[in-house]
């Protein structure tokens, strides 16, 4: 295979696909790439050699995919995301390249335990939660359904953080996942770009300079260098590229300062550059933190846009054809500054007229919104934005002038609505609204569940929707079942294959054929045996990690997600306290043994979220040490929740907690992963729970609580939570115990403020939904007591989740937004 102007190269020798051949190649890589004799090799050496064996086969498909894209000369997707929570790649890549079974057989011949070495692979610390995991699923699905794509993000050295629990409190430590290198990535020194900050803007010089063309002269520059990771689709159909940017100083060390004794000053430029790609989501509670986060977002956006435009011009010559060949998807508001950056490149670097550049920009970009929380739609103080990005501030003002003029000419808007559309928030401190910039600069804006999309039209983007009534559309999220069923739950995947054949491996909706086995007692027995084995595996892991002793026969009730008040881990904990009281008060009842497992990280500056983690651990200490409830209730917080831990916890779950305040969770994807692994959902009608109920059947999901419309009505009608609390004996007692120091004898006032917030305003409707939630949990207890009924509902959940495949989601993006056949 040759590219234009390239002479024919020798064709590589075909690789052997049998276990003996793979074993030989693994030993060769161990010997000649790592310099290790097989007899002296340690587990991490075997891991590295195995990854290189898999990687070489991925590279063959990667090169073929690149050649195919070049020859087709079609449109390519560029997916910009601040997070890509890809997890471990060894099993994922081996499975997708259809060599996992042969690889395991080869390692058996070599006397190497594949599970042991797989556990040594670090999780890439490139994300925090659902946003980053969705991006990872989408990258895999784009390759699977043959959509040519690049993912663009940041190569974080330490990522979010490694969470440890000390005396019940979250402690943030650096996540050193790159300490020993990353065998999956390839540095691309030829793909390096200057990214500037600050400085001044002058009119462009020369007779051919356009009226809007300017010359930005930054006073600070860093180099963005690309590191590429191949992302293999199912059956190696296509391999796409995840390109992550590392920041490097132009001058790593100022020798004159160093030799003069100013050692810190000599390294200041290097330290400032390295800070850009060291930590995901630096705390923005201080001006310095806000500045670093904006720098990060512009750094990766600028590098990505420069790379996209350079590639387009190299292949197609004319930058004006960019919308025909490039579809750029903004994953949330973090890369929204890309809109202004592309305008700068088109106007200043390529000399296009402003209006023509704006037309090209809007036809190129599309934007995925992930939140209805106004505070989560990023905005930046105008002085900060203007100081760091003076040319982009000019562009934002120019775009805003055109946008507001268009709105006024439409005759639909009063001054209040005009102000809501503006890219500049004039209320109080003037701020640049990144959500508005993303909306204005895109031809498509999508929500991620049907409910979320409908609410977008009447809440955060209601005025934009009136101005552009066809721009908002829905693309309900999905997950890749290759990782979240086939790989993380091989027992269940094998059972399904025996029952209905292999079609579901390529078409997740074929899982529907399991419907006919839901009442089959023999299949139910095998299904429950798989679940019991997964629960035993999780119990063993928790005994090793946190010295917890958990009975696999108990109901495993699991809530694992980012710690946030709207996700309502607090509601779950309060109900656990109420259940604890009830078990002690009524020992004569036939209580269902239950294990409540929590996992998730709190943002370092989010006080209440960190306090909720501490409360979970304080409640766990009291409950787990009380002989009155032994064998009936156990509470455990699992530290450092990540993709690898999710791959163990999700297959073991009996009950999936999806209990966010209705109208506040955009979609969720954990809900989908749990359900396809045979867990029943307890949840509100929020996010994708609504569509899950419609697909699995309302009798196979446990729904409670206020709807989004009821939540809004309560807030509007002057909701008084104190009245609700005083009317609920169990809730009142639980809150009094927490606020009174029952679970914090060392600091009796620790939780007074947290509880007082529920009494005073209860914005997240914890009190309002408590009785309904507690009743739903007793409904779960009754169902658990009927093993056959529970098994039937769990099997039907698996059978009816095929629609929630990320392959379906990506095909919808490709057909409706990107205009790429898929």
UniProtKB/TrEMBL annotation:
Cofactor needs: pyridoxal 5'-phosphate
GO molecular function, one term: 1,4-alpha-oligoglucan phosphorylase activity
Protein name as catalogued: Alpha-1,4 glucan phosphorylase
Keywords: Carbohydrate metabolism, Glycosyltransferase, Pyridoxal phosphate, Transferase
PANTHER family assigned: GLYCOGEN PHOSPHORYLASE (PTHR11468), GLYCOGEN PHOSPHORYLASE, LIVER FORM (PTHR11468:SF3)
Protein role: Allosteric enzyme that catalyzes the rate-limiting step in glycogen catabolism, the phosphorolytic cleavage of glycogen to produce glucose-1-phosphate, and plays a central role in maintaining cellular and organismal glucose homeostasis.
Organism (species): Sphingobium olei
Family according to the record: Belongs to the glycogen phosphorylase family.
Enzyme Commission (EC) number: 2.4.1.1
Catalytic activity field: [(1->4)-alpha-D-glucosyl](n) + phosphate = [(1->4)-alpha-D-glucosyl](n-1) + alpha-D-glucose 1-phosphate
Catalytic EC class: transferase
SUPFAM superfamilies: UDP-Glycosyltransferase/glycogen phosphorylase
InterPro entries on file: Glycg_phsphrylas, Glyco_trans_35
Classification via Pfam families: Phosphorylase (PF00343)
Superkingdom of origin organism: Bacteria
């Amino acid at each position: 295979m040759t590219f234009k102007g390239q002479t024919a190269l020798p064709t590589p020798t075909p690789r052997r696909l049998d276990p003996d051949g793979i074993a030989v190649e693994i030993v060769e890589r161990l010997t000649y790439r790592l310099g290790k004799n097989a007899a002296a090799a340690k587990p991490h050496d075997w891991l590295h050699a195995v990854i290189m064996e898999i990687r070489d086969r991925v590279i063959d498909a990667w090169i073929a995919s690149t050649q195919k894209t070049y020859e087709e000369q079609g449109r390519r997707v560029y997916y910009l995301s601040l997070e890509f929570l890809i997890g471990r790649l060894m099993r994922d890549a081996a499975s997708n390249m259809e060599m996992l079974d042969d690889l395991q057989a080869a390692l058996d011949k070599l006397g190497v335990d594949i599970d042991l070495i797989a556990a040594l692979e670090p999780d890439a610390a490139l994300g925090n939660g659902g946003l980053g995991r969705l991006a990872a699923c989408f990258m895999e699905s784009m390759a699977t359904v043959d959509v040519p794509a690049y993912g663009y993000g940041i190569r974080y050295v330490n990522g979010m953080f490694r969470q440890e629990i000390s005396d019940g409190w979250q402690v943030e430590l650096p996540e050193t996942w790159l300490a020993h290198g990353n065998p999956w990535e390839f540095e691309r020194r030829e793909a390096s770009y200057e990214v500037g900050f600050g400085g001044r803007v002058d009119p462009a010089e020369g007779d051919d300079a356009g009226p809007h063309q300017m010359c930005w002269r930054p006073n600070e520059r860093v180099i963005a260098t690309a590191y590429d990771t191949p992302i293999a689709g199912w059956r190696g159909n296509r391999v796409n590229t995840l390109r992550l940017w590392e920041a490097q100083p132009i001058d790593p060390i100022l020798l004159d300062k160093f030799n003069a004794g100013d050692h810190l000053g000599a390294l200041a430029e290097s330290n400032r550059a390295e800070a850009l790609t060291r930590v995901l989501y630096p705390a923005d509670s201080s001006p310095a933190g806000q500045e670093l986060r904006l720098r990060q977002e512009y750094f990766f956006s600028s590098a990505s846009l420069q790379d996209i435009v350079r590639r387009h011009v190299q292949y197609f010559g004319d930058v004006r054809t960019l919308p025909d060949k490039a579809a750029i998807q903004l994953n949330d508001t973090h890369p929204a500054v890309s809109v202004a950056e592309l305008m700068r490149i088109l106007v200043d670097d390529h000399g296009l007229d402003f209006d023509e550049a704006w037309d090209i920009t809007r036809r190129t970009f599309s934007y995925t919104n992930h939140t209805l929380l106004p505070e989560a739609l990023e905005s930046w103080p105008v002085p900060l934005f203007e100081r760091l990005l003076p040319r982009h501030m000019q562009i934002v003002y120019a775009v805003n002038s055109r946008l507001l003029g268009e709105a006024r000419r439409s005759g639909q808007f009063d001054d209040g609505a005009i102000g809501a559309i503006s890219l500049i928030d004039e209320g109080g401190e003037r701020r640049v609204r990144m959500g508005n910039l993303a909306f204005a600069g895109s031809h498509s804006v999508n929500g991620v569940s049907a409910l979320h999309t409908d609410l977008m039209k009447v809440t955060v983007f209601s005025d934009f929707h009136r101005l552009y009534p066809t721009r908002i559309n829905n693309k309900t999220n999905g997950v890749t079942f290759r990782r979240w069923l086939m790989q993380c739950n091989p027992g269940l995947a094998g059972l399904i294959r025996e029952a209905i054949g292999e079609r579901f491996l390529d078409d997740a909706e074929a899982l529907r054929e399991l419907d006919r086995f839901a009442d089959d007692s023999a299949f139910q027995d095998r299904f429950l045996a798989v679940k019991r084995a997964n629960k035993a595996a999780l119990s063993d892991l928790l005994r090793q990690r946190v010295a917890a002793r958990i009975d696999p026969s108990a109901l495993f009730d699991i809530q694992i997600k980012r710690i946030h008040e709207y996700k309502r881990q607090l509601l779950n904990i309060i109900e656990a306290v109420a259940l604890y009281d009830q078990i002690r008060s009524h020992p004569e009842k036939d209580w269902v043994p239950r294990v409540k497992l929590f996992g998730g990280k709190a943002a370092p500056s989010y006080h209440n979220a960190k306090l909720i983690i501490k409360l979970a651990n304080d409640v766990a200490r009291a409950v787990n040490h009380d002989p009155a409830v032994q064998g009936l209730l156990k509470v455990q917080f699992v530290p450092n929740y990540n993709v690898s831990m999710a791959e163990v916890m999700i297959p073991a779950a009996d009950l999936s907690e999806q209990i966010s305040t209705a109208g506040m969770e955009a979609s969720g994807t954990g809900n989908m992963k749990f359900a396809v692994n045979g867990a029943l959902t307890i949840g509100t009608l929020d996010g994708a729970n609504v569509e899950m109920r419609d697909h699995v059947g309302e009798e196979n999901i446990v729904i409670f609580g206020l709807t989004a419309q009821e939540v809004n009505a309560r807030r509007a009608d002057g909701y008084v939570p104190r009245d609700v609390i005083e009317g609920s004996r169990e809730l009142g007692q639980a809150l009094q115990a927490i606020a009174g120091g029952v679970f914090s004898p060392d600091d009796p006032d620790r939780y007074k403020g947290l509880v007082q917030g529920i009494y005073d305003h209860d914005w997240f409707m914890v009190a309002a939904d408590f009785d309904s939630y507690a009743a739903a949990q007793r409904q779960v207890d009754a169902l658990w007591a009927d093993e056959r009924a529970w098994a039937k509902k769990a099997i039907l959940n698996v059978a009816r989740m095929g629609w929630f495949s990320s392959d379906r989601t990506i095909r919808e993006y490709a057909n409706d937004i990107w205009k790429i056949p898929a």
